[in-house]
Amino acid sequence: MSEFKKVVAVCGSSRAGRPEENSLTQRMLDKFLEGLAPEQSRVFFPHLMQIAYCRGCYTCWFKTPGICAIEDDMAETRRELDQADLIILASPVYVDGFSAQTKVVLDRIIPMFDPLISVDAEGHCRHPLLQAGERRPRALLLSCCGFSEADNFAQIRSHFRAICRNLYWQRAGEILLPASGLAFVPRKYDEKFAAIKKAGEELSQQGEISPETADFIAREILSARQYQEFLNPYFSRLRKQQQGKTV
Ligand SMILES: Cc1cc2nc3c(=O)[nH]c(=O)nc-3n(C[C@H](O)[C@H](O)[C@H](O)COP(=O)(O)O)c2cc1C
Question: 46 with 105: CB under 8 angstroms?
Fold first, then answer.
């Protein structure tokens, strides 16, 4: 049985939550959860919910500490996140970073902080958690990107690490799958999906994802040139087929 009782995922692909769209982010998340087998899991799809942008009014810091001025679906999302043993940020790379659908949730987390700044052991400014002694959940980044090179994850990984530091989350790993165009070719990514499930099993049973499994998932299987030659004819056909049609 998994060490994780409650897992909460934010699935920030615009295509997730609608099976006919076949979101790769969601397919990865489903496989990972299959391997992890937590007692309870909850997946949020922010684009299918009412979650407004943070207004930056700081009501949650000064007027009603810990309570956001906006009444929408974020209240429930926060309640669930606050109880999670493992938080999964499942986001495709959109313009080199987290999708807006994921980020809107992250921005709405600031009510959990005390505005009074503390300075940590490295001399860096932090906002302490409002509720001292609050649990520090583990957190996992799960992402895919359209280009073939794994370095397209550089910014989202760096952002994820900063988020974990500032939100007091303990990093549980990163599952990164490049060249998303190949995931739609029958059987091409079967081994990658099997490895994503294995990563879930490893995290559940050993408390961490082995570097071999994470590397296998992130490994580029086609060079940039090969990927270009493979994908462009398909994209050209698709463009011809769809021209004149409304999407
Ligand atoms: C708005 C948008 C921006 C994107 N930006 C990037 C990018 O900067 N780099 C990249 O490699 N792929 C980019 N992609 C491709 C997606 O990361 C890729 O198609 C991913 O598989 C989408 O996940 P999904 O199937 O769950 O929607 C972008 C896609 C969209 C829709």
Answer: yes
How many angstroms is it from 71 CA to the middle of ligand 1?
31
Question: For residue range 202-226, what is the model confidence (pLDDT) as tens digits?
Answer: 999 999 999 999 999 999 999 999 9
Distance CA 241, CA 184 (A): 18
How far, in Å, from the CA of 77 to the mean position of ligand 1?
A: 24
- Write the CATH number of the domain with boundaries 6-220: 3.40.50.360
Token pair listed for 22? 């076949």
The structure tokens 């052991």 sit at: 121
Cα-Cα end-to-end distance for the chain: 44
Identify the residue whose C-alpha is closest to ligand 1 atom 7: 95
Q: Kindly report whether the global pTM for this prediction surpasses the value 0.85.
A: yes
> At 195, phi and psi to the nearest 5?
-70, -35
- Cα gap 73→201, rounded to integer Å: 31
* pLDDT tens figures, 115-158: 999 999 999 999 999 987 767 999 999 999 999 999 999 999 99
Residues with CB under 6 A from ligand 1: 13, 15-16, 23-25, 92-96, 144-147, 152, 180
Cα–Cα distance, 113 to 70 (Å, whole number): 16
The domain segmentation of the chain, as residue ranges, is: 6-220
